[in-house]
Design goal:
The chain is of the alpha+beta class and about 350 residues long. Helix content is about 35%, strand content about 15%. Strand 9 (about 300-305) and strand 10 (about 310) form a beta hairpin. Strands 3-4-5-6-11 form a five-stranded antiparallel β-sheet. The N and C termini lie far apart (about 90 Å). The protein folds into two domains: about 40-185, no CATH class; about 190-335, Rieske Iron-sulfur Protein (3-layer Sandwich). It contains eight helices and 13 strands. It is found in: Cell membrane. InterPro entries: QcrA_N, Rieske_2Fe-2S, Rieske_2Fe-2S_sf, Rieske_Fe-S_prot. It holds the Pfam family Rieske. Belongs to the Rieske iron-sulfur protein family.
Length: about 350
Amino acid sequence: MSSQEIPEKNLPSEQDTAHGAVAVAEDPFADPGLPPHKPRVQDIDERAAKRSERTVALLFTLSMLSTIGFIASFVAFPVEKIVYVWPLGHVSALNLSLGVTLGLALFCIGAGAVHWARTLMSDVEVADDRHPIEADPVVKAKVMSDFAAGAEESAIGRRKLIRTTMFGALAMVPLSGVVLLRDLGPLPEEKLRHTLWGKGKQLINMNTNEPLRPEDVAVGSLTFAKPEGLEEDNHEFNNEIAKAALMIVRLQPQDIKDKRELDWSHQGIVAFSKICTHVGCPISLYEQQTHHVLCPCHQSTFDLSDGARVIFGPAGHALPQLRIGVNDEGFLEALGDFEEPVGPSFWERG
């Protein structure tokens, strides 16, 4: 039904419209425009602007001092130093000092930038029309002009104190990352190629902490051993056992397929590295019927009756074997170190 077909008595009268009975809908997409700009105190008072400038410079300076504190803490506090801090309790002095100083350095840079933007940079809102993504020469010229205007409005050219301290803070913060490279430690040199095993080192049972005799190892059993002299209270215990951990299995000599494995065994007792050659997980699952050992991390499987070669999984090479014998007292002993590095491959291994 068109408006011409609506009875005249049903149309709103001018009186109804005047009293608000029927209102004409406003355009919901109308441009509301920008509110009038209100100048800040820093815009009209140079003394207030100077105070803001000094505040920003102070924050950047605190950031530089915190970075220096970070480096000093890294040098001053030993790793083992523990301090009591309420309410955190007993914490590492090194970790606490590094976290506080680095956090303060980054916070002061952010706080200084925010205070600079809110008090000294131009806060005039500018409305601009959208344009195609591809920029034409006019737009490029406008962008460069806007950039130059923004640089001018930021007052970075006139506020030399802010500029100098900001560049100083930004230049010094990366030094924290450079200092952290010290945690990578010294070069490994030959440490990855050698373990604590050597000629005459007795095989110590990891469970009983007693030397092993051949009769202690039953056919089909799996025993774990460590080198003689390596104690759990040793500061380097974890580093050394990660290379020297040994698993011992007794097989029937006729079941050993690899000649070198048989030559390096003692009465069917073979000793292999416990460290998986994939990513270094400890191997602990043994299937006595097949003589296979399984790494629980990624299911690499090794055949202990055939030189511990890889028969399944992502491991790259066989488990290193340790040559063993019996000393004059009847205890199992190593006849040397592993002939190849234990664990995963590394780029210098060759």
